[in-house]
Amino acid sequence: HSFPTRRSSDLERGRRYTHHTPTVAPHSIQVAPDGRVWFSQFNNSRLGVITPATGAIEMIDTPFPAPRRFRIDSQGVLWVPSYFEGKFFRFDPASREFREYRLPTGAGDMVYALAIDRRDDTVWLCGTNSDTLIHFDPRTEQFSTYLLPSRLSFTRELEVDAEGNVWTTTSNLPYYQMEGGQGKVVRLSFK
Predict the structure, then answer these.
(1) Closest among 101, 107, 148 to 126, alpha carbons compared
(2) Per-residue b/e over 59-73, b at no fewer than 16 CB within 10 Å?
(3) What are phi and psi of 11, to 5 degrees?
(4) Which of 10, 67, 128, 179 might form a disulfide with 110, Cβ 3.0–4.6 angstroms?
(5) Is 70 within 8 Å of 60 (Cβ atoms)?
(6) Please, are residues 155 and 167 in contact by the beta-carbon 8 Å criterion?
(7) CA gap 134, 141 in Å, rounded
C-alpha cells in the first residue's frame, strides 16, 4: 500500500504524518502491545487492523452488530461491546476466535463503553440502560454489578485509574429526564 504523506508548518517541524484511509467510517481506535493499530467499523460490523511496518490492512467480520469503544488488554486480546445486544465479546487475534459474554443485567441493557483495569486485565463495562457499572473477571468469568448513585444516568465513558478507581460520565438528553437534572462525573472507589 502507498499512503499520501503530508507536511505542514503548522505541525511540529520535522515530524512525518501519514494518513491511512483503510475503510469507510472507522469508529474506535486502539494500539495493541505489539504495535498494530486496531479500529472498529460501527456500521459495518467489522474490526480492522493495520500493521504500521508494512502498511497491511486486514478486515475481520464480527459475529455481532455495532462493534465500538473496544479496549485491548496487556496480552493483546480485544474486548468489544456489541452496542445493541446486552453483550460483549472477547476477540483473540492469535486464534481469530470471538467469545460471547452476556451482561448479568439482561438483554435490554447496553454496553456503551468498557475499560480494562491495567493492574489485572479485568474488564469494566457501562450498564448504560441499567444505571450500573459491571466488573468482569476473565479468569473466573464472574460478574459484580454496582448501582450508580442516580437513575436514568446513561453512562458514556469509562476509565480505571492506577489505583483501581473506576470513573465514568453520565449524560442523558434531555437532562430533565435524569435524576437530579444534570450530568455527572462518577467515581467508584474501593477504599
Answers:
(1) 148
(2) ebebebebbbbbbbb
(3) -95, 170
(4) 128
(5) no
(6) no
(7) 12
Residue type, 148: L
Which DSSP state fits 176? G
DSSP string, 66-113: -B-S-EE-TTS-EEEEETTTTEEEEEETTTTEEEEEE-TT-TT-----
Beta strands, E only, the chain: 5-6, 17-18, 29-31, 37-41, 46-51, 56-61, 71-72, 78-82, 87-92, 97-102, 114-117, 122-127, 132-137, 142-147, 155-160, 166-170, 184-188
Q: For 44-71, how does the pLDDT look when each residue is reduced to its tens digit (9 = 90+)?
A: 889 999 999 988 999 999 999 888 899 9
Helix, coil or strand: residue 177: helix
pLDDT of res. 68: 85
